[in-house]
């Protein structure tokens, strides 16, 4: 991961303001918080630890980049004045080692702003380097510098004695008392059409989701309240994420708040306003968390 002064100040051990921007479905964007960060100030890169459910990964190939060979840079670079809607790929050629920092290699290619931190792939699709900066001359960038994975893995191995650990999630009851706007997923309409319920799609069970669906279909308001009694997730759901805010739709994409805690069957919650989000041919129901009642 590329370090950035606005995300992870150089020299930081842990910084909660770092996010991985993940596009995990058609038109879905989520900002995933990173709670463990180790920064290499010299090379401007960061080693991060995310949650156990993170599945974003790529094969690494710690072999030297060969001068004259062509590689591929994949990124969400700028498209006009905004970040591109989907990832793009462009071919770059290795020129050789950098004159100032021989650990870096020079790439020949037209890279654009926001492409720092992009992976450089070989013909097998494995990551062989990370773009760390562009060289801009007269407003035009024809060269970039990249850190080979071989050098990166040496740094990571050197830090194995002081591994980066993910910080413990805050207590949900205390968090609700200190923060407004926390949001939880109640389920989606299509789950009710299934004979066998999928609990990730209806974490509080069929009866609660049916009540929400009936209330939503009978009104026209953007949000509504329904439950006075506390709710508990189904035991089959095990745990569900509590987010910093309810999702918002913008330009056909759903932007989700970051995960700040988890709700298990040990606790009950009271919810306030419920909102129905029409998205990708379905309806998703989200609710504001107003109180946590511990069963312990």
Task: Please give a quick description of this structure.
This protein has 296 residues and is mainly beta. It has three helices and 20 strands. It starts with 17 loop residues before the first strand and ends with a strand.
CATH superfamily of the largest domain: Trypsin-like serine proteases
Helix content: under 10%
Order of helical and strand elements:
EEEEEEEEEEEEHHEHEEEEEEE
Main β sheet profile: 6 strands, antiparallel, barrel
Please give a structural write-up:
The structure is a single chain. Helices cover 10% and strands 42% of the residues. With 296 residues, it is mostly beta strands. The protein folds into 2 domains: 18-158, Beta Barrel (Thrombin, subunit H); 172-294, no CATH class. A 6-stranded antiparallel barrel has the order 5-8-9-12-11-10. Strands 14-19-20-13-15-18 form a 6-stranded antiparallel β-sheet, with helices on both faces. The protein has a 4-stranded mixed β-sheet with strand order 1-2-17-16, with no helix packed on it. A hairpin with a 2-residue loop joins strand 16 (248-250) and strand 17. The radius of gyration is 23 Å and the shape is elongated. The model is unreliable at 1-19 and 21-31 (pLDDT under 50).
